[in-house]
Specification:
The complex is a heterodimer of chains A (113) and B (115).
Chain A: E1 3-5, E2 10-14, E3 19-21, E4 24-26, E5 32-38, E6 44-50, E7 56-58, E8 64-68, E9 73-78, E10 87-94, E11 101-103, E12 107-112
Chain B: E1 4-7, E2 10-13, E3 18-25, E4 31-37, E5 44-50, E6 53-57, E7 64-70, E8 73-79, E9 87-94, E10 105-106, E11 110-114
Parallel strand pairs in B: 2-11
Antiparallel strand pairs in B: 1-3, 3-8, 4-5, 4-9, 5-6, 7-8, 9-10, 9-11
The chains are: A mainly beta (113), B mainly beta (115).
Chain lengths: 113, 115
């Protein structure tokens, strides 16, 4: 069965620290990949997405993610986090041509000022 | 109002009650989704409608019954629920009609508690 694993459930960082959140998926075919973010008290919203082409994708607020097909991974990175990045981050996979989206369990990030 | 709205935001119901959750999208999208979000579990896709036709039904118990009267509105009718159905129910919409994996826009959710 298709699944998405996010290895870090809780991450605490100080401001200006670098961030990397892991995401691995299990699916044999072509995939579309997403990172969504949920800031406290707000809706889930798209951070970035990968459909095809350059495996390094850039999103909003300085976030980027790299698709490594051989590792079935789509890790999220940010060189220097800010207090305002405190949120829950969700990785998701979609099989092209389907409406099925598979989400990970989420990673709660807390950035200390 | 813009985006995806959901009502009510909070709902407490007994196991014998019948209630409905409502979702409305103001984005002109063609597909709408219901998800269940439980603590420490991934979002679970429950139902998908594309142009008012149900296209995904992920083995959801029959005590959950979706309805999509038009492309802007989506309902989830609840009947004889169990305490383990307590969760946050999220509605989402996307522009695509053909399941091209486009961005989903989420509502704020309805926090459901079943007593």
């Amino acid at each position: 069965a298709q699944s998405v694993s996010q290895h870090n459930h809780h991450v605490i960082l100080s401001e200006a620290a670098s961030l990397e959140l892991g995401c691995n998926y299990s699916y044999g075919g072509t995939v579309n990949l997403f990172w969504y973010v949920q800031y406290p008290g707000q809706h889930l919203q798209l951070l970035l997405k990968y459909f095809s082409g350059d495996p390094l994708v850039k999103g909003i607020k300085g976030f980027e993610a790299e698709f490594i097909k051989s590792k079935f991974s789509f890790n999220l990175r940010k060189p220097s986090v800010q207090w305002s990045d405190t949120a829950e981050y969700f990785c998701a996979v979609n099989a092209p041509g389907t409406y099925k989206y598979i989400f990970g369990t989420g990673t709660r990030l807390k950035v200390l000022a | 109002e813009t985006g995806v709205t959901q009502t009510p935001r909070h709902l407490v119901m007994g196991m014998t009650n019948k209630k409905s959750l409502k979702c409305e999208q103001h984005l002109g999208h063609n597909a709408m989704y219901w998800y269940k979000q439980s603590a420490k579990k991934p979002l679970e896709l429950m139902f998908v409608y594309s142009l008012e036709e149900r296209v995904e039904n992920n083995s959801v118990p029959s005590r959950f019954s979706p309805e999509c009267p038009n492309s802007s509105h989506l309902f989830l009718h609840l009947h004889t629920l169990q305490p383990e159905d307590s969760a946050l129910y999220l509605c989402a919409s996307s522009r695509e009609r053909t399941g091209d994996g486009g961005e989903q826009f989420f509502g704020p959710g309805t926090r459901l508690t079943v007593l």
